[in-house]
Amino acid sequence: MARSKEFEENVVLDKAMKLFWEQGYEKSSMTDLVEHMGIHRRSLYDTFGDKHTLFLKAMDRFSDKVNAELTLQVKRSKTATEALQFILGSMIYGEEDSPSGCLMVNSAVELAMRDADVDSKLSESFTLSEQLFKDIILWGQQNGEFNSDCNANELAEHLHAVCVGLRVMTRTSMPKEKLNRIASFSIKLLDK
């Protein structure tokens, strides 16, 4: 008879996600993961498979959580400008108890060129981000906040690239004031 699990999968997956986010894939050993997740090595393998599979699941979990939060905040925003300010601000400041940067961006830098599975997940995630930006830009163009002369797809690609850059720079000693200026200028470029 199989033993029942003594842990909640999403809780321990969140712990693995945070470790990968903070240390990266290569630096996070199986011993680190077992200790950080608070489960037995056998339970880790039985539930999540090998380290690579666990990492891919952690990427999915991160993407789902971030997309849900951003979508919710965009829906709560009164204007397209406010929605963009929230998103860009969240790229700079993140959550209080989270590592700096972004698991997806960190993984792109560390693994995308040599891991097709990771690259595929990143492509999906980045496409969703660009679509969110496009939706916000179209909203702003339709209500007269943003210049309608520019192509919404191209603007979305540009804003996504800015966000990726901001996420990378948050892992450095770059002053937040500079990052805020970059974010503000990026929104200002959309103005009429």
CATH architecture level-2 label of the domain at 59-188:
Orthogonal Bundle
Number of strands: 0
Q: What is the CATH first-level class name of the domain at 59-188?
A: Mainly Alpha
Radius of gyration: 19 Å
* CATH homologous group name of the domain at 59-188: Tetracycline Repressor, domain 2
Question: What attributes does this structure have?
Answer:
192 residues, mainly alpha, Tetracycline Repressor, domain 2
Structural account:
The protein has 192 residues and is mostly helical. The protein has a domain at 59-188: Tetracycline Repressor, domain 2, CATH 1.10.357.10. Helices cover 72% and strands 0% of the residues. It has nine helices and no strands. It has helices spanning 9-23, 30-37, 41-48, 51-76, 80-93, 103-111, 116-142, 152-169, 176-188. Helix 1 (9-23) crosses helix 4 (51-76), helix 4 (51-76) packs antiparallel against helix 5 (80-93) and helix 8 runs antiparallel to helix 9. It is elongated. It starts with 8 loop residues before the first helix and ends with a helix. The model has no long low-confidence stretch (mean pLDDT 94).
Q: Mind sketching the topology for me?
A:
Layout: H1 9-23, H2 30-37, H3 41-48, H4 51-76, H5 80-93, H6 103-111, H7 116-142, H8 152-169, H9 176-188
Helix pairs in contact: 1-2, 1-4, 1-6, 4-5, 4-7, 5-7, 5-9, 6-7, 7-8, 8-9
In short:
The chain has helices at 9-23, 30-37, 41-48, 51-76, 80-93, 103-111, 116-142, 152-169, 176-188. The chain has 192 residues and is mainly α. It has a domain at 59-188: Tetracycline Repressor, domain 2, CATH 1.10.357.
